[in-house]
Write a structure and sequence with these properties.
heterodimer, A: about 220 residues, alpha/beta, Rossmann fold, about 25% strand, B: about 300 residues, Alpha-Beta Plaits, 2 domains, 4 strands, binds adenosine-5'-triphosphate, binds magnesium ion
């Protein structure tokens, strides 16, 4: 599903975020990505989503070299990804329901079908009662779950989450982790960057240290 | 096809929402566009009305040749022969002084005046249709004929009509120029509004891209916005011109009747109104498109 072939990423002017990373994530796998702050976890996920391009090596997603993708092809790659960003990137000018509707509108799903799916996704993360709430009125954990609902509403084959349980109390963190485990159960490939690998006991754990993958 | 419709519906709803979200801004920009568009539209309407009122005035030019009052029959006939021999003359007709008198007597109010005169005040005259109606050729022919002996006065009948025609042409050019300039104004207004929108919607644009939005998905609501705003501006212009027509219709009819004319000021017809609306919508769309080209690239 995801292959890194001797991938390095250097941000200008000379910050090495990833160094010679080679890895392979199979379809349906659940993988956690651990490492200290600045180890390169977010960078690795951004390379998969083509938000950044590798300085060296190749990143393949479903056999496609995403680093070499034409800008016009990018949207179609991203529609098959579910992305939970470290800073969530919710839209604060619209309510929870409208936030979850956005990926469906982008994919051109008819309104009725889209509403049904959006409600199902909100229900999945336990936010159906809050669908009319503006994100600002949601607690930190609720915002995390809303971001997850938006990431999964398009039923992506690959789910990438960057610190989805950061700043959550242990109980809430466990609830959120549970959601990812459910998606893993139904065959979705899941990669989660997290400090707290213990939340995902059945996952294959990868560890980054100063941009290098630890054996 | 279905997805395409869905996406346009989505974009249209989004742009309507944006129009409604800032009602005062929307109203002000629509008013600005309406006034900008109403000026050339009103000008064009006035010209159309003027052309309609002067419909018969653009007949082929004629030259009236008045002979001396004391010209003899022989002189009159000689001038007729000379006209027949002049290559610049295409046709001519003699109006005997008796005919001129009886024609004038038929005109209301003149009979009493004419009856009070001791003699027929009208000379014999020829009405000449020139072969070439270019202004300088007309002038030349008139000058030539006025030098003939027995000719008292030569008049270019159509001079006023030609001046009027030239005036109308000038008016049309001025309206065209005005329309061009104010059209650019409308594009500029839209350009700036869309620029501000792109800046305030940065977050949404960025997130949409990350969720797999194509460029056309992102551009669509802005283009719809420009188009709708142009359309509303065009509607405002139409309403302004229509109201002005209604307000001026009475006074114009009164004025025309003082000159013995029956004339009603016409408002914009449906074809013209549709044309304006289409044009206004296209200008709004164009302004939005240009703005997106400039500002969507920057992130
Ligand atoms: N856009 C950027 N420009 C320059 N340097 C960057 C950029 N993004 C990340 N870096 C640097 O690359 C390194 C890896 O960053 P990254 O965000 O991948 O770390 P991380 O493992 O996600 O850290 P955290 O756990 O704090 O989120 C860091 O040293 C960071 O300063
Ligand atoms: Mg990070």
């Amino acid at each position: 599903m995801i292959q890194f072939q001797q991938v390095s990423k250097r941000y200008p002017p000379g910050q090495d975020a990833l160094v010679d990373v080679t890895l392979d994530v199979g379809p349906g796998e659940l993988v956690t990505l651990a490492g200290h702050s600045g180890a390169g976890k977010s960078t690795l996920l951004k390379l998969v989503a083509a938000m950044e391009r590798p300085s060296a090596g190749a990143v393949l997603v479903n056999g496609q070299n995403v680093g070499a993708l034409k800008p016009a092809a990018l949207p179609y790659l991203r529609r098959n990804l579910g992305l939970v960003f470290q800073d969530q990137k919710l839209l604060f000018d619209r309510n929870a329901f409208a936030n979850v509707m956005l990926p469906l509108s982008i994919a051109g799903i008819p309104h009725k079908e889209a509403s049904r799916r959006a409600r199902a996704a909100l229900d999945k993360v336990g936010l159906l009662m809050r669908e009319r709430a503006m994100p600002i009125a949601l607690s930190g954990g609720e915002q995390q779950r809303l971001a997850i609902a938006r990431a999964v509403v398009n039923r992506p084959g690959l789910l990438l989450a960057d610190e989805p349980t950061a700043h959550l109390d242990p109980d809430t963190a466990r609830d959120v982790a549970e959601i990812f485990l459910d998606f893993h159960q139904v065959g979705v490939t899941v990669v989660v960057a997290t400090y707290d690998g213990a939340l995902f006991p059945q996952a294959r754990a990868l560890r980054l240290d100063h941009g290098r993958l630890q054996p | 096809m279905n997805a395409w419709l869905t996406q346009h519906r989505h974009a249209l709803m989004l742009s309507l929402g944006r129009l409604a979200a800032t009602p005062l801004n929307t109203l002000l920009s629509i008013l600005a566009m309406g006034i900008a568009l109403a000026l050339p539209a009103g000008g064009q309407l006035l010209l159309d009305n003027a052309r309609l009122a002067l419909g018969g005035a653009t007949a082929p030019p004629q030259i009236s040749v008045f002979l001396a009052l004391d010209a003899s029959q022989g002189e009159v006939a000689a001038i007729g022969q000379r006209l027949a021999a002049t290559p610049g003359v295409s046709a001519f007709r003699m109006i005997p002084r008796a005919e001129a008198l009886s024609h004038m007597r038929a005109t209301e109010g003149l009979a009493a005046v004419l009856d009070s005169l001791p003699d027929n005040p009208f000379p014999d005259a020829y009405v000449v249709t020139p072969r070439d109606d270019a202004p300088h050729a007309l002038e030349q022919l008139a000058t030539d004929i006025s030098a003939w002996s027995g000719v008292a006065h030569v008049q270019l009948d159509s001079a006023w009509a030609r001046r009027l025609d030239a005036l109308l042409r000038l008016g049309r050019a001025a309206v065209g120029l005005l329309a061009g300039l104010l059209g650019i104004g409308v594009v500029a207004i839209t350009f700036n509004i869309i620029r501000l929108q792109v800046l305030t919607q940065r977050g949404e644009i960025e997130v949409s891209r990350l969720l797999g939005a194509t460029d056309s998905f992102i551009r669509r609501p802005f283009l719809w916005f420009g188009l709708l705003q142009g359309l509303l501006g065009g509607l405002t212009a139409w309403a302004l011109v229509f109201a002005a027509t209604l307000a001026l219709r009475g006074p114009v009819t009164d004025l025309a009747s003082l000159y013995g004319l029956h004339f009603v000021l016409h408002g914009p017809g449906p074809e013209i109104a549709t044309l304006w609306l289409g044009l206004a919508a296209s200008l709004g769309w164009l302004g939005a498109g240009l703005s997106l080209r400039q500002y969507l690239r920057s992130f």
